[in-house]
Design a protein that fits this description.
With 514 residues, the chain is α/β, with parallel strands linked by helices. Helices cover 40% and strands 19% of the residues. The protein folds into 4 domains: 272 residues, TIM Barrel (Alpha-Beta Barrel); 35 residues, no CATH class; 50 residues, no CATH class; 117 residues, Alpha-isopropylmalate synthase LeuA, regulatory domain (Double Stranded RNA Binding Domain), CATH 3.30.160.270. Strands 1-2-3-4-5-6-7-8 form an 8-stranded parallel barrel, surrounded by 9 helices. Strands 9-10-11 form a 3-stranded antiparallel beta sheet. Strands 12-13-14 form a 3-stranded antiparallel beta sheet. β10 and β11 form a beta hairpin. The chain is globular and about 75 Å long. The two termini are 34 Å apart. It binds 3-methyl-2-oxobutanoic acid and zinc ion (ZN). The site of zinc ion has 6 residues, from loops.
Length: 514
């Protein structure tokens, strides 16, 4: 057993399964590069067979990431495994992660398969995957509610077939820590060829226990933890990467284990994921929440000033909190913008792309004297969106909002290249703006969520808005940023409309037949 815990990030796969968290290929690439900078060992880039878009994203990540292993998910099905292998082919280090459900309820009700058939299908899948790569991971889905005797039999068979990583998912977040830890211990002790594989865990947070369950599993021999940035993931999410990593690091006295992670990349990556998905980070979220290192009460402040360790068990700068230092202003030149973006891991591919970003930067710097790293990230998202062929484009808007009067909004949009104008009244300026857009777009989508967050501190901050729309079972998030929150809201609504246009039907890995 090693003294290192492998960190397997599934933000781009399980994280993206959160309703509304779907990301574009460019957004996924940006997150993958940030994960690579953080020195994540394995990046689960997606479920390639889900749709052509998912395939392209995994392939693009496989072509780009060189330091981390790139992984693709595949059900225990020939077509899934072949598709995953094809998408992963360009990656210097690649892994196929195949799975099939093993709990009585999943085998009977979801798959309609007998336990023998599940073993047979799992073994065939692992053998097929081994034909494409030596690095194969197998998961018995819903292991947390599976019978240990059956799990032992299944795991032994897939290790014999060539699986080098055995991942034990608590798919529905049902376990409690001591029970889950005991399950891992039992499996490692009872499976005769357990020494030929690394045991991994993948915990969901339905009872708020995902991190605790993962850590108990580590105490009992698991040497890979599957987790996501900000705990994003199906339903209540997955174990949060930042909490797992910092618990292992801060309590090394208890665990006596290391990870490869460069923790200073945690906060920038967390912010990037939040801004791309539009899922805000709650202020009291451990490690990455705005209040995680803020000392509000007088007593605490006094203690921290006298000796930081009176109330702080970690240092903010160790997880990447900076003073959000001013990097650029309106006198900064093109080279300074390019260099700062490169420091943030954003590669500018052409002179035209740099010109476009620089023009937007100048606009922003005119409105807002101090341009921070987070502003730059928001600006890159905006530029990427604008560079994509899109049906709807924001051109201009006007809002009238006076005490005692009904707010009114006017919008000029380009739809398929043709300019259109519209206006509407609403209960507030944002409501009026969304109605004005709908008057010309006629999307018929339902608004599920609208939120505004400031990108940086201060009233001159850009407002970063998220609009979540749903239509015909598809859910998308659109984002917009501007120092004027009404314009940011209009841009977010338009971005969501464009994502609805672009969204394709995709298969969900854990639903349907296998
Ligand atoms: O939660 C789960 O069981 C999964 C598997 C596909 C590993 O995400
Ligand atoms: Zn999962």
């Amino acid at each position: 057993m090693t003294d290192r815990v492998i960190i397997f990030d599934t933000t781009l796969r399980d994280g993206e399964q959160s309703p509304g968290a779907s990301m574009t290929k460019e957004e996924k690439l940006r997150i993958a590069k940030s994960l690579e900078r953080m020195k994540v060992d394995v990046i689960e880039a997606g479920f390639p067979i889900a749709s052509p878009g998912d395939f392209d994203s995994v392939k693009a990540i496989a072509e780009t990431v060189t330091e981390s292993t790139v992984c693709g998910l595949a059900r225990a099905k020939k077509a899934d495994i072949e598709r995953a292998a094809e998408a992963l082919a360009p990656a210097p280090q690649r892994r196929i992660h195949t799975f099939i459900a093993s709990s009585p309820i999943h085998m009977e009700k979801k798959l309609g398969l007998t336990p023998d058939e599940v073993v047979e299908q799992a073994v065939a899948a692992v053998k097929l995957a081994r034909g494409f790569t030596d690095n194969v991971e197998f998961s018995p889905e819903d292991a947390g509610r599976s019978e240990p005797d059956f799990l032992c039999r299944l795991i032994e068979a897939v290790i014999d077939a060539g699986a080098g990583t055995i991942n034990i998912p608590d798919t529905v977040g049902y376990n409690v820590p001591w029970q889950f830890g005991a399950l891992i211990k039992q499996l490692i002790e009872r499976v005769p060829n357990a020494d030929k594989a690394i045991f991994s865990v993948h915990c969901h947070n339905d009872l708020g226990l995902a991190v605790a369950n993962s850590l108990d599993a580590v105490m009992n021999g698991a040497r890979q933890v599957e987790c996501t940035i900000n705990g994003l993931g199906e339903r209540a999410g997955n174990a949060s990467l930042e909490e797992v990593v910092m618990a292992l690091r801060t309590r090394r006295d208890v665990f006596n284990l290391d990870t490869n992670i460069d923790a200073t990349q945690i906060v920038p990556t967390s912010r990037l994921v939040s801004s791309v998905t539009g899922f805000p980070i709650q202020p009291n979220k451990a490690i990455v929440g705005a209040n995680a290192f803020a000392h509000e009460s007088g007593i605490h402040q006094d203690g921290v000033i006298k000796n930081r360790e009176t109330y702080e068990i970690m240092r903010a700068q160790d997880v990447g909190w900076s003073d959000n230092k001013i990097v650029l202003g309106k006198h900064s030149g093109r080279a300074a913008v390019k260099t700062r973006l490169e420091d943030l891991g954003v590669e500018i591919e052409s002179q035209e792309a740099l010109n476009e970003i620089f023009a937007r930067f100048k606009d922003l710097a005119d409105k807002k004297h101090e341009v921070f790293d987070d502003d730059l990230q928001a600006l890159v998202s905006e530029t990427e969106a604008a560079a994509t062929e899109e049906k709807y484009r924001y051109i201009a808007s006007r809002v009238v909002s006076e005490t005692g009067e009904t707010p009114k909004a006017e919008i000029t949009l380009s739809i398929d290249g043709a300019e259109q104008q519209s206006s509407a009244d609403g209960s507030g300026p944002v409501d009026a703006m969304f109605k004005a857009i709908e008057n010309v777009a006629n999307s018929g989508a339902s608004l599920l969520l609208y939120s505004v967050n400031n990108v940086t501190d201060g009233t001159d901050s850009q407002g970063e808005t998220t609009v979540r729309l749903s239509k015909d079972g598809r859910v998308v998030n659109g984002n917009g940023a501007d120092t004027d929150v009404i314009i940011a809201s209009a841009k977010a609504y338009i971005s969501a409309l464009n994502k609805l246009e672009a969204s394709m039907p995709r298969e969900h890995p854990q639903r349907g037949d296998v």
